[in-house]
Write a structure and sequence with these properties.
Elements lengths: L5 H21 L12 E2 L6 E2 L2 H11 L18 H23 L14 H12 L3 E3 L6 H5 L3 E3 L4 E10 L4 E9 L4 H14 L5 H12 L5 E6 L10 E3 L6 H4 L4 E3 L3 E6 L8 E2 L3
Helix pairs in contact: 6-7
Length: about 280
């Protein structure tokens, strides 16, 4: 039998001690259970023994393998790597903010952006009518769609009004709705026009007839209560015989009014804000 040198014995003992240290620290691979774990996943802390086992665990539990930078970690468990990771995250946030400031297409999304002249005049005119209008950033679709305008010569507002009729499954838009027009007469006109269209099916025509058969007294027009947390998900009940200007008094509008037409039988399905 070949004698082992002191160096060989020392190397073998050192390797076994290192192996025992790794085994005691990480344990057995949690994927294959056949070898000593060498790696720890930064995200889910699963211990694996090889790249193959690491890939398998990512596929099975859909793990990204990246540390969750915002996950809570007690201060007593913090180490140098955690501090370095947090520092890099702050640097990344700083770069993102700086990029946003330099991007001309994103500047308009910041709060406090100055309004253009015509929007400023429109907001002032609404304020005099006791209506609060809020404008979205210019890159938002609803802002781009808004055709509401103030005629500074006559001091009259022409509103873009979006109409929705859930019972019929249809919606339509008034691009320039005069604020002094009566909303009840307008909706009757829209329903009559919809019925007269050639592509309107017989079933839809019957539903329109049923909706308007009871006259104006059988209809209700609602408007979502916007920009008020306590009224979230609720609706204002508008007066059909009054003008749009009258109905918008004391209310908050985001860009333009979105109105909902229903029959009075369906009113119980909506939460109504009863004004004082």
């Amino acid at each position: 039998m070949e004698d082992l040198s002191k160096e060989d014995i020392t190397e073998e003992d050192g390797s076994s001690r290192i192996s025992e240290m790794i085994r005691s620290r990480l344990g057995i691979c949690e994927v294959c259970s056949g070898d000593v774990a060498k790696y720890t996943c930064p995200r889910c802390s699963i211990h694996t023994c090889s790249v193959r086992c690491s890939k398998i665990h990512k596929e099975e539990i859909e793990c990204s393998g990246q540390r969750n930078k915002t996950a809570y970690k007690p201060l007593k468990d913090f180490n140098d790597l955690d501090v370095l990771s947090d520092y890099r995250m702050l640097e990344e946030i700083g770069r993102s903010v700086d990029t946003c400031k330099r991007d001309s297409t994103r500047k308009v999304t910041r709060i406090g952006q100055e309004l253009t002249v015509h929007l400023h005049k429109l907001r002032a005119a609404c304020f005099k009518r006791n209506t609060r209008i809020r404008f979205m950033p210019s890159v938002m679709i609803k802002h781009k769609e808004n055709t509401t305008r103030l005629d500074w010569r006559t001091n009259e507002i022409s509103w873009r009004v979006s109409w929705r009729v859930p019972q019929l499954g249809v919606s339509f838009v008034d691009e320039k709705f005069p604020e002094d027009n009566e909303i009840g007469a307008t909706i009757e006109e829209h329903l009559s026009q919809l019925k007269s269209l050639e592509n309107t099916g017989e079933d839809l025509k019957e539903q329109i007839d049923f909706l308007i058969a009871g006259g104006r007294s059988s209809l209700r027009i609602l408007m979502p209560a916007e920009m008020q947390y306590k009224y979230s998900g609720k609706y204002y009940l508008l007066e059909l015989g009054k003008s749009l200007k009258h109905n918008l008094r004391g209310k908050d509008i985001v860009e333009y009014p979105c109105l909902v037409l229903i029959s009075k039988e369906h009113l119980s399905s909506y939460q109504i804000v009863y004004e004082k």
